[in-house]
Amino acid sequence: MSPALDPGYLLLAIVLSFVGNDLWRVLGVVLSARLDEDSGLFAWVRMVATALVAGLVAKLILAPAGGLALAPLWLRLAAVGCGLAAYGLSRRSLTLGVAVGEAALIAGVAALGI
Amino acid sequence: MSAEGDLDVVDSSGRSDLDWALKGAVAAVNTPGIVLFLSFLGFGAMTHDFGWPLWIAVVSTALIWAAPAQVVLAGALANGAGLLGAALAVTVSGVRLLPMVVALLPVLRSERTSLGARLLAAHYVAVTAWFEGLRLTPTLPRPARMPFFFGLANALVVGSSISTAIGHAAAGVLPSALSIGLLGLTPLYFLLSLERGAQSLGERVALGLGLALAPVIGLVAPASDILWTGVIGGTAGFLVQRLADKRRRS
User: Fold this and answer.
1) CA distance B218 to A59
2) H or E stretch at A1
3) Concatenated DSSP letters of A56-111
4) B121: closest CA among A75, A28, A11, A66?
5) pLDDT digits over A55-76, tens only?
6) Last residue of a domain, one of B158, B185, B212
7) Would you say A42 and B118 are in contact if contact means Cβ atoms under 8 Å apart?
8) Which domain holds residue B163?
9) Rounded distance between C-alpha atoms, residue B186 and residue B198, angstroms
10) Tally of domains within chain B
């Protein structure tokens, strides 16, 4: 077993990640005490959050870590395109968009025999 | 004075904190919650691929409680990043939680909300809990919002932890097309949720720029690309919204 798979090592990595992640959550509590819902700063912060998550989505699709990278880029983009099209045509149904995008991805991977 | 007014609303509705928490837990079993559970099936399957024990995968969901951070952690460790390198990557990926907490807490808190309750609520902030919290709580009486959110978030954590375990256990059994499909759920679901949540012109600009900028900025500053994408895309969206508001008023 490589050291990276030792349970103690993994647990330590998880605890460190928990601390690093919750650092931002605690900072958010400190900052939010000084903000009110209608302020301009609040609107700005909300848009920064939107752009941040959007950026993460782009990275997860274009340069994924792990098994998703086994699907070629064109297939990942085609699956997202199918999902977006179904979502748009169904008047913004999250369920339908996700279901159609997933079906396209799974069918593509199966057809390619990955 | 306004606190008294709020308490009157709760009294007249006749619901206790526990009732609101249960309503929140029930609200978790909805499309966003179910898609989240499915994407944690995908995460569980991925950790099986990377050789994690099942219980470690479940602890990571229950404790870190942020699918992107967990995917970053697992990916970084699998790519041979050391303990500190992986934790740093996770910490950078978590920056987006700060503005999300700042955006949600003023909606949830009432005058009787303690610091401890606010810290705990912040810990539960992750994409799905955040979207659903912002979507469902503003119509509730103010003192009901925090218990409702705790019910919602706890149900999401429990369901996600169970899903992680099932995904891990099923990984060896599932055909690869299905396990790759599970891994694709998270980005697809995040993308559509963002689109549905972005109602103003400014938020649409922030969303579009975020998608377009991340790959470009990634070439220049791979370690901090998400952060810069957020600041640049969000600021641009904010300025566009300001301009649009000004034009409407004049």
Assistant:
1) 9
2) none
3) HHHHHHHS--GGGGGS-HHHHHHHHHHHHHHHHHTTS-HHHHHHHHHHHHHHHHHH
4) A28
5) 888 988 998 867 788 999 999 9
6) B185
7) no
8) 15-185
9) 18
10) 2
Q: Is the pTM of this model over 0.90?
A: no
Q: Which of the residues A2, A6, A9, A10 would you substitute to probe the B interface, choosing the one with the greatest number of B C-beta atoms within 10 Å?
A: A10
Instruction: Of B165, B94, B156, give the one whose Cα is nearest residue B124.
Output: B156
Using alpha carbons, list the distances in angstroms from residue B81 to A42, B85, B86, B221: 36, 5, 6, 18
Question: Which of residues B136, B152, B185 is at a domain's end?
Answer: B185
pLDDT digits (tens, 9 = 90+) for B9-43: 444 567 899 999 999 999 999 888 988 898 898 88
Q: Measured between CB atoms, which of A54, A101, A106 is closest to B194?
A: A54
- Tell me the percentage of chain B whose pLDDT exceeds 90: 47
At A44, list the tokens: 């700005």
Query: How far, in Å, are A26, B49, B227 from residue B137 at the CA level?
Result: 21, 38, 28
CB pairs under 8 A between A and B: 327
A60–B68 C-beta distance less than 8 A: yes
Specify the amino acid at residue B193: S
- B80 domain residue, yes or no: yes
Identify whether B211 is part of a domain: yes
CA distance B103 to B158: 24
